[in-house]
Specification:
This protein is an alpha/beta fold and 428 residues long. The protein has 17 helices and 14 strands.
Length: 428
């Protein structure tokens, strides 16, 4: 089995570096192709997608935000039907499998645009299915376990009506209803009957799956990976936040902590729906030394990391396994992060960084002060963080982990087929 080169379908709803799930998908595709495997992407058409010879199988583009702006009875039915059961995606996946004959299908972020309906085709063909989860969509209609700025798990046992009542998805009744229906229709126990293995980057998410209906034999967790890259430290002049600027990321808490810090500089790199609100808040609070520099390229982020004193992850939501933590560690910088979700699996307090209670301004400020006043300690934390990243987050280690899963599910499927064949012959 180790010598065989596989033909693998990799499914993700976007095929460009849009977020963590997309980065992982693209990096995994490159990793597998370099090892000699044939990778067949399955996605949605988008003008920013990478070029591929397989885009004839992609589903047509849909922007749910725009669709929901003209939310009416007819349109609501069309949007809901496509977001829950995308028949076009199911048909195209079936066509892809029939024409390309893959050995395995590896799903990533497929909800809403592709929908779990695409699982039926490989299951019907008896092709092994692996699914890496990057968020909590199976258990939360809004995928982040967050409501009104606080952790909320009211829907985790399938009681998705709470998401509709509270309009958890984008503050919209229509979007919340669609998300709740999707969560109800594609529930974990139902999906577990067709998916051979669920992969989670964090033990935190793995435990949620195990505690809510997915058998232990079908859940494996190991971290995501970073491309091999050496980042030299060029200084320690500022704190750095880089990532999406949305309410669950806790950047507003960061601004409040800096208001009372009276020293140090902060660079905020990123874009998102909260950008204008955060700029306005920084002005009202009179925060000094903060610079919003907008979205940055990967190369620019590397330069920013090399010059910072620490990377900041002040999230108030149950983060799964943030890439920002790994990227900060590989740059030999300590991480100051919320003690929430899967983050404590990445950052050991007083070892590779500092952890603070989510949303606690004073706790965060103390962490910032500690780094500023103990720069040699901060450098040592960064050194230990890099050692951990080189030990646990490498492409080599990830390839070993992922191939072990692929081999197991393919072998298990063959063993079941052999057993069924023997039983059929015995009956005859």
């Amino acid at each position: 089995m180790n010598e065989n080169k596989l033909k693998i379908v990799i499914a993700n709803k976007y095929l460009y570096p849009r977020g963590g799930d997309c980065l992982y998908t693209l990096r995994l595709m490159e990793l597998l192709e370099k090892a000699g495997h044939t990778v067949i992407p399955f996605s949605m058409h988008h003008p920013e997608n990478i070029k591929t010879d397989y885009d004839r199988y992609f589903v047509k583009h849909i922007d749910f935000r725009e669709e929901l702006k003209r939310f009416g009875i007819k349109n609501s039915i069309e949007v809901a039907s496509r977001a829950i059961v995308n028949s076009e995606a199911a048909f195209l996946m079936s066509k892809l499998i029939d024409e390309c004959q893959p050995d395995l299908v590896h799903l990533n972020n497929i909800h809403h645009q592709l929908t779990p309906e695409i699982i039926k085709a490989p299951a019907r063909y008896n092709i092994p299915i692996v699914w890496t989860h990057h968020d909590y969509t199976l258990f939360c209609p809004d995928h982040v376990f967050l409501r009104d700025g606080k952790v909320c798990k009211k829907c985790i046992n399938g009681q998705n009506i709470h998401a509709v009542i509270n309009r958890c998805k984008k503050g919209s009744l229509g979007a919340s209803l669609i998300a709740a229906l999707e969560c109800w229709y594609h529930n974990p126990r139902k999906l577990a009957r067709q998916v051979d293995r669920f992969i989670t980057p964090s033990k935190f998410l793995a435990d949620i799956m195990l505690n809510h209906g997915i058998p232990e034999a079908q859940v494996t967790h190991f971290p995501n990976f970073l491309p091999s890259a050496e980042i030299d430290s060029t200084g320690n002049d500022y704190f750095l936040y880089f990532g999406r600027l949305s309410s669950e990321k806790g950047v507003n808490i960061l601004l409040e902590a800096f208001k009372n810090l009276n020293q140090g500089k902060l660079i905020v790199a990123g874009d998102g729906p909260e950008l204008d609100n955060l700029k306005s808040k920084a002005g009202k609070l009179g925060v000094r030394g903060v610079d919003f520099i907008g979205h940055q390229s990967p190369d620019s982020i590397i330069k920013l990391l090399s010059g910072c004193i620490a990377g900041l992850v002040p999230s108030i939501c149950l983060e799964n396994f943030p890439y920002t933590v790994m990227e900060t560690m590989i740059a030999s910088k300590p991480v100051i992060a919320s003690r929430i979700g899967g983050i404590p699996e990445q950052v050991e307090h007083d070892d590779t960084g500092l952890l603070f209670e989510p949303g606690n301004v004073d706790d965060l400020r103390l962490c910032l002060e500690k780094i500023l006043t103990h720069k040699s300690m901060a450098a040592e934390m960064g050194r230990r963080g890099k050692l951990k990243a080189l030990r646990e987050y490498t492409a080599v280690q990830h390839y070993k982990n992922i191939m072990k899963v692929y081999e197991e599910v393919i072998d298990n499927k063959r063993n079941v087929e052999f057993k069924e064949s023997r039983e059929s012959i015995s009956v005859k």
